[in-house]
Amino acid sequence: MSQNDDYPHKVRYEYEQDAETRLNYAHGVWGGINPQGEIEINFYTESDKIPPYSERLVAADGSFGHEIAPYDDMRIISRRIHSRVLLNYHTARAVLEWLEDKVEALEVEEGGAPLMYDGDTGLEQ
Fold first, then answer.
1. Least trusted range by pLDDT, from 2-6, 11-15, 21-25
2. Is residue 77 part of a domain?
3. Maximal C-alpha separation, the chain
4. DSSP string, 52-102
5. pLDDT digits 0-9 by tens, 48-58
6. In angstroms, rounded to a whole number, what is the distance separating the alpha carbons of residues 123 and 26?
7. Is 6 inside a domain boundary?
């Protein structure tokens, strides 16, 4: 089969980074398929919610008691979404293949799956 002379013999992709590009760490992802049939991915990080206030009781002798916060009876975890990505079907397929290649390379390089503290993938829908 010969190369069609109507098409270039090579295509080059050159990469530039937007001045506002920043590195984000993700603990997980939340999303799904939106009404336009695109896959929406919301990357987030997690941390314990900081209470809006805390209080201490003061005893008759002026000493402080223990600190009391509104969330003392329940642990609240805050998920801060820092990046949103929309993918069409074809791009999602390409990202999936790329990610599978990278995970396989990690498994070979590390001699198995890298350590995870509890087996939780952090993935949700």
1. 2-6
2. yes
3. 95
4. S--EEEE-TTS-EEEEE-TTTTS--EEEEEEEEEEE-HHHHHHHHHHHHHH
5. 998 889 999 99
6. 11
7. no
